[in-house]
Each structure stands twice: as C-alpha cells, then as structure tokens.
Amino acid sequence: MMDSNLDKIIYKALEGAELEKEEIVELLLLDKEDDLNKLFGAARRIRSREFGNKIFLYGFVYFSNYCRNGCSFCYSRKSNEIERYRKNTEDIMDIAVKLKEAGVNLIDLTMGEDPYYHSSGFEDVLEAVVRTKKEMDIPLMISPGVVEYDLIDRFKSSGVEWYALYQETHNRRLFKDLRKNQNYDKRMDTKLYAKNIGMLLEEGIMVGVGEKIEDIADSILEMKSMKADQVRVMTFVPQEGIPLQASAENDEYLELKTIAVLRLVCQKSLIPASLDIEGIDGLKPRIDSGANVITSIIPPSEGLHGVAQSCKDIDDGNRSVVTVEKILDSMGLKAATNMEYKEHIDQRMVQHV
Ligand SMILES: C[S@@+](CC[C@H](N)C(=O)[O-])C[C@H]1O[C@@H](n2cnc3c(N)ncnc32)[C@H](O)[C@@H]1O
Ligand SMILES: C[C@H](CCN)[C@@H](N)C(=O)O
Ligand code: SF4
C-alpha cells in the first residue's frame, strides 16, 4: 500500500531530517486514533534512541507566589485575592533536603515576580541558591521571571545550571493578551542572555489560550532555532479570579501531540511531562507522547503550591518520587540516577561553549 503522507513525515523524522512547518501543522492536526498512535510511537522511538529508558525527575519549589504582574492565565496574578506566601531561606533549604533525599535529579526554584525581591534586591534568593548548591550539590533551575542581567550573572556564578523563562507563545499579538504590559523582546532577550553566558535554557509555550495551530508550529520551530535545552508545552488550566477562559474548541490531545512533535523536531532536547496540569493521572500519557522529564514533583504538607494546579495531588503525596517511580516501573522505564543526570547536563554545558 502506498505510504501515506503521515508515513513519509514520520520516516523523515526517524531519519533525523528537519520537518517543514506544513508537515508540523499536519501532525498537530491528526485526530484519528491509528494516526495518533503512529505519531506517539515515533516519538517514543526517538526518545529511547536519545535517552534509553531513563527519565529525569525535577523537584519543584514555588518559594514565593507574590507577583507584580497580571498575566491573564495565572492564578498568582497580582489582582487575584489568593493565599500568598514567601518561604525564607531555611524553609527553602529544608524542602530542598527533602526533595534530594526523595531522589529528584534537579530542584527548580520558582517565584512570581515578587515585588519584595525586585525592590530589596535578591539577596535572600541568592543566599538560598548559594547554600543549596554548596550544602547539597544538586543541579538547580531558577525560574524568577524577567530579571536584570547582573542578577543572571550572579545566579550563574553561584552555580545555577538552568534558567527557565517561558514565552507562552511566539505570536506577538497573543503574547500581549496573555502577558499584559510585558515586553515580548525583553523576555526573549533575557532568556537568550542567560543562554549566551552558558546557562542551560528552558523555553515553553501554553496551548488552549486562543492560539492557532500555525502559532504552535511557529513556536516549535522557534524553540528549535534557539536551541533551547529543554522545551515544554502546558495546557492552560482555568483558574478562579482570572480573565482568561478555556478556549471553546478544546482538543484534549493537543498538548500530547505537541509534546510528540517537539520530540520529532527537537530530538535531543529535554521535554517535560508536567504533573502540574492533570496531576499524577496526566503522567503516563505525557511520557507515552515522548516526554523524558517529570516536573512539578512537590513534597506534601510543606505549604507549597503548584502553578497551574495550586493544590492538586500535593498534600496526598501523589506528586512524589515514590508514586512517580511506580508508574515508570509499570512502563518499563526508570528514573535516572543523579550521576546520569549530571553527566547529561555537563555534556550539554560543554557543547554550549
Ligand atoms: C513557572 S510559573 C512562574 C515563573 C515566573 N513568574 C514567570 O512567569 O516566568 C509561570 C509559568 O507557569 C505556566 N502557567 C501559569 N499559569 C498557568 C495555567 N493556569 N495553566 C497552565 N500553565 C500555567 C506558564 O507557562 C508560565 O510561564
Ligand atoms: C510550571 C512550573 C515550572 C516552572 N519552571 C512547574 N509547575 C512545572 O510544571 O514544572
Ligand atoms: S505567570 Fe509569572 S509573571 Fe505571570 S502572573 Fe504568574 S507568576 Fe506572575
């Protein structure tokens, strides 16, 4: 039987060839079960070729949910009347110890654009970073939002390996709707600055926020061209007290298809399966779509929030390494050791230079 166009595109990706935008759009529009299974199967084949059966685990510490911004999609947006908290250095250290002992490969220190830090300098944050690095020697990601370059220099010189800053979309008009009064180019320049001084970069988008399929394809090609070390997609989760509503046409496979197409296009990149969208139930489908990093592992009863799901599966311990490892085991996959993760990122950092 003649190969379908889908077969040709998948063959091309398996051969390591670059896909055209039209081919990416075609993959994102798939809706038949057999075709979806072909796409996800190809993504798994490429993941196992690049990473074997090893999956990386990231702990998540949202240490301050105060924010000066008003992103239309975000529960932490300034005007939202929510329970706000700011963890001090000791709290952050205690949580980081628990996460390391639990077996995560990296700790992601995330904050809202907290006016306290922006006005008083980031000494507390830097102290927590320096102490975590020194006392625990675990790879760190910092997700502080847009900050000045000299602070990024200080994060790097403190040993922080990763900088995460998601554009959400590379469609400038949509960006303006999502990140009100924020500057598209400043956000892009800040993450590229971090990459240019040798930090590993995580870029990301959201789906279900009013984007077109072509916008997703443009973002995938943009993430490829900036050579982001980690590339993510998250489905918008509606929140109380925010203006953005879920878009009408809701394709429940869109995030999974985007993960799979990211795998076909950015074959060597790390791709998260975030627990922050559907909790632990969302893990298997995202891993089956080609993701190779499990993010948003949050220790229970520490008063920590997720971002998209502020409470889901946290205090019942479902976002734990133990729970995650059982699921990986059932899939014939294994959590990477810290040594394996560090070797991987050391190799990446060398290639950056
Ligand atoms: C990592 S957190 C906070 C870090 C920092 N304040 C920033 O905005 O870059 C922000 C990210 O979480 C994701 N996010 C926030 N609200 C969400 C929601 N309701 N649904 C899905 N993803 C969401 C967005 O991709 C956003 O860039
Ligand atoms: C969005 C967060 C990461 C920020 N660097 C976290 N909830 C996650 O899903 O990994
Ligand atoms: S996404 Fe980040 S910057 Fe935007 S409101 Fe949420 S915490 Fe603040």
TrEMBL record:
Q: Respond yes or no to whether keyword Iron-sulfur is given for this record.
A: yes
Please list the residue ranges annotated as the Radical SAM core domain.
Answer: 53-276
Species annotation: Dethiosulfatibacter aminovorans DSM 17477
Residue positions annotated to bind [4Fe-4S] cluster are 67, 71, 74
An example of a Gene Ontology BP annotation on this entry? pyrrolysine biosynthetic process
Positions bound to (3R)-3-methyl-D-ornithine: 108, 143, 166, 232, 274, 295-296
| Pfam families, sorted | Radical_SAM
Q: How is the cofactor bound?
A: Binds 1 [4Fe-4S] cluster. The cluster is coordinated with 3 cysteines and an exchangeable S-adenosyl-L-methionine.
Annotated GO molecular function terms are: 4 iron, 4 sulfur cluster binding; metal ion binding; transferase activity
The name under which this protein is listed is: Pyrrolysine biosynthesis protein PylB
Question: Which residues of this UniProt protein bind S-adenosyl-L-methionine?
Answer: 73, 168, 179, 187
Q: Enumerate the cofactors the protein uses.
A: [4Fe-4S] cluster
The record's SMART domains line, in alphabetical order, gives:
Elp3
Q: Which SUPFAM superfamilies match?
A: Radical SAM enzymes (SSF102114)
The record's listing under PANTHER family reads: 3-METHYLORNITHINE SYNTHASE, BIOTIN SYNTHASE
Keywords from the UniProt entry: 4Fe-4S, Iron, Iron-sulfur, Metal-binding, S-adenosyl-L-methionine
